[in-house]
Amino acid sequence: MKDVIERLKATAEHLSINPTKTNWGEDCAENLASDIEAVLNELDKLQERSDRYYELIMCVETKHPNETRHETAVRYIRQRETAMPEAAKEAIVAPETTETGNDCNKD
What we know:
Layout: H1 2-17, H2 26-58, H3 69-83, H4 86-91
């Protein structure tokens, strides 16, 4: 993502400093369109990750004092992972999810 942002900055600088350069036309427009598409694709991926993270931390129903939901979730996961024998971990089958993909409120 950083490299795409740098290319966008360079293109913008090129446009503002050298607007009359002969190679400014189609090449520059194609590069800019390609870079914008790359940034939009990266933003889509980041939004998906953000949505998944939000779903995960909202599974923490009880926020403990002096902890964020994130810290509580990390503590819960670490406690669960370290307390389980390896054989039990292998035997666990992932629960089915609801239509929304959120299985936090299942009984």
